[in-house]
Amino acid sequence: MLVHRDLAHLPHFRNAVVTIGTFDGVHAGHRKIIEQLKSEAEKVHGETVIITFHPHPRKVVREGQLAVPILTTLPEKITLLQSLGIDHLVVIPFDAAFSNQGAEEYIQHFLWEKFHPHTVIIGYDHKFGKGRCGDYHLLEKYGKQLGFEVKEIPEHVLNEVIISSTRIREALLKSDVAAANKFLSYTYFFEGLVVMGNQLGRTIGYPTANLEIADKEKLIPGNGVYAVEAEVVRNGHVSDVSSVVSDLGTNLPLTTPHSLKGMMNIGVRPTVDGTKRTIEVNLFDFDKDIYGQTLRVFIKHYIRGEVKFSGLDALKAQLAADKQQALKLLNSEE
Ligand SMILES: Cc1cc2nc3c(=O)[nH]c(=O)nc-3n(C[C@H](O)[C@H](O)[C@H](O)COP(=O)(O)O)c2cc1C
Ligand SMILES: Nc1ncnc2c1ncn2[C@@H]1O[C@H](COP(=O)(O)OP(=O)(O)O)[C@@H](O)[C@H]1O
């Protein structure tokens, strides 16, 4: 998959079959749209093109509104779309100038001139252009004049997309990873930089890699203890998207046989300080210094809620039980 971020230097697409959307989560509902995109492209021997926006249009157009956490950061979205066999991903820098284009200008100077699409696939309720005044009918009218086809994404698929996104967010926020992973059709994951903690973990026999998530918009599941798989993916933070794209060959499929098993706590750790929310992972059968590296964590199962223990001995006993429980859950999948 080629990722294009510069609108001034797009390639010449061959019979482009194009769809437009944010695809946050690239979940089971999105995958149906992608199947439709691929089957239309196959019919006309065309290339599949997904146009997406970054940052999220909501952020630019409705500034000041309560931010909805995102399920996939841009590099993660790229990784997932790549794994689905899309030919081109075009990432539009969604700024005020782009959002101020009128609907007709958007069709002629953006969709037509940049892509010369064979087919555009959009939802019947898709709106575009300044004030969101362009719709399916306007696109069809221009399609006839300029010579491209417009195809509709069925209503039930669109409804599924909206319902799934909301359900996945709600499920993760209440720690229901079983439901979230089912709607996603893959295991929810995030990446964090391993930073210093209180250095207490090692003294009780459970060193924990404390994670700092780079993208503040990324949805972090609700507090609690989870069984996870994790991999050290690179040194330092994601610096730019291209580094992730070049990483792709080694990181697909998303959970590799090299994943380590472990357990993670998300919470305020009432037993030891009880204030700042932290994310920390204890990896099983592992003993390396990974400070300054990035850990990708796949959240497989929820184990329990966070508890305030009477002291470190009680916490330690519970961690031993959590480890057994995590291993039981993780091994049962194999
Ligand atoms: C799997 C797991 C479960 C945990 N559960 C709790 C808990 O229920 N309550 C709590 O106060 N801290 C809990 N902790 C956090 C520990 O208090 C923490 O790992 C320990 O204080 C070490 O901190 P440090 O990494 O900053 O040195 C848990 C940690 C892990 C890895
Ligand atoms: N099995 C392991 N799981 C997690 N981290 C480990 C493990 N073995 C070694 N480490 C290293 O030890 C650090 C965690 O030790 P810990 O005493 O909890 O310190 P801190 O409070 O700084 O996280 C990790 O950041 C990592 O570099």
From TrEMBL:
Q: Which CDD domains match?
A: FAD_synthetase_N
Q: Which InterPro entries match?
A: Cyt_trans-like (IPR004821), FAD_synthase (IPR015864), Riboflavin_kinase (IPR023468), Riboflavin_kinase_bac (IPR002606), Riboflavin_kinase_bac/euk (IPR015865), Riboflavin_kinase_dom_sf (IPR023465), Rossmann-like_a/b/a_fold (IPR014729)
Name the top EC class: transferase
Task: Please name the pathway.
Answer: Cofactor biosynthesis; FMN biosynthesis; FMN from riboflavin (ATP route): step 1/1; Cofactor biosynthesis; FAD biosynthesis; FAD from FMN: step 1/1
| A biological-process GO annotation | FAD biosynthetic process
Name all Riboflavin kinase domain ranges: 183-331
The reaction(s) catalysed by this protein are:
riboflavin + ATP = FMN + ADP + H(+); FMN + ATP + H(+) = FAD + diphosphate
Q: Which UniProt keywords apply?
A: ATP-binding, FAD, Flavoprotein, FMN, Kinase, Multifunctional enzyme, Nucleotide-binding, Nucleotidyltransferase, Transferase
Tell me which stretches of the chain form a coiled coil. Answer: none
User: Which Pfam families does this entry report, sorted A to Z?
Assistant: FAD_syn, Flavokinase
| Listed EC numbers | 2.7.1.26, 2.7.7.2
Q: Which domain of life is it from?
A: Bacteria
Q: From the UniProt record, which GO molecular function terms apply?
A: ATP binding; FMN adenylyltransferase activity; riboflavin kinase activity
- What's the stated role of this polypeptide? Catalyzes the phosphorylation of riboflavin to FMN followed by the adenylation of FMN to FAD.
Family statement: Belongs to the ribF family.
Family annotation (NCBIfam families): cyt_tran_rel, PRK05627.1-3
What this protein is called in its record is Riboflavin biosynthesis protein
